[in-house]
Amino acid sequence: AQTVTQSQPEMSVQEAETVTLSCTYDTSESDYYLFWYKQPPSRQMILVIRQEAYKQQNATENRFSVNFQKAAKSFSLKISDSQLGDAAMYFCAYRSIFQGAQKLVFGQGTRLTINP
Amino acid sequence: GAVVSQHPSWVICKSGTSVKIECRSLDFQATTMFWYRQFPKQSLMLMATSNEGSKATYEQGVEKDKFLINHASLTLSTLTVTSAHPEDSSFYICSARETVQETQYFGPGTRLLVL
């Protein structure tokens, strides 16, 4: 079974600086999806970024980018120019690409604090 | 972006009563919806996967007779907590998978308190 590990329970960063959240996963599959979700204090889960494993190019969404290292099974999230609104729990998630494999496998989460 | 609504956002009930939570995909059709439970400061725990028009698939350890799931249309799934007890108090989150990109979008959650 696939597993997702976020080794940093908490991180903090100064406003306007850059922070990287780590995520590693374990799978025997060659193709899959990876996601980062954000859960602010409102507890609404928000999709931050998505990566297809067959794509070598790292996904980016404005200030958010990933460093996808397939061989190392690593999928870190970089947040540039951190803003106060980025404060949240961040969850890394894996999903198989195979038909019938539907559920997301979540990591334990990283709580990100932004210091003004 | 895709929007998922959840109703109610807050519910307080007496022990022994049943509570129904609705999950709707507002601007897309979802053949598959998911129900999660989240304890404070923890990750999401998948309870069940529901496919439109068929029985839900429950995760190990989740009582299907206690957590009734119905997915009668492509935009609506319901979770009914039957004979609720204080230990069922939790934050329940639904999500719906958009068919084209196969991305899951989440509802805002329902906080259940059983007295």
Question: If you had to describe this structure to a student in words, what would you say it looks like?
Answer:
- The complex is a heterodimer of chains A (116) and B (115).
- Chain A has 116 residues and is mainly beta.
- Helix content of chain A is 0%, strand content 52%.
- Chain A has strands spanning 3-5, 10-14, 19-21, 24-26, 32-39, 46-52, 60-61, 64-69, 74-79, 88-96, 105-106, 110-115.
- In chain A, strands 2, 5, 6, 10, 11 and 12 form a 6-stranded mixed sheet that branches.
- In chain A, strand 10 (88-96) and strand 11 form a beta hairpin.
- The model of chain A has no long low-confidence stretch (mean pLDDT 94).
- Chain B is built from no helices and 11 strands.
- In chain B, strands 2, 4, 5, 6, 9, 10 and 11 form a 7-stranded mixed sheet that branches.
- Chain B starts with a strand and ends with a strand.
- Chain B has strands spanning 4-7, 10-13, 19-25, 32-38, 44-51, 57-58, 67-73, 76-81, 90-97, 104-106, 110-114.
- With 115 residues, chain B is an all-beta fold.
- In chain B, 0% of the residues lie in helices and 53% in strands.
- Chain B is globular, with a radius of gyration of 13 Å.
- Chains A and B meet through strand 5 and strand 6 of A and strand 4, strand 5, strand 9 and strand 10 of B.
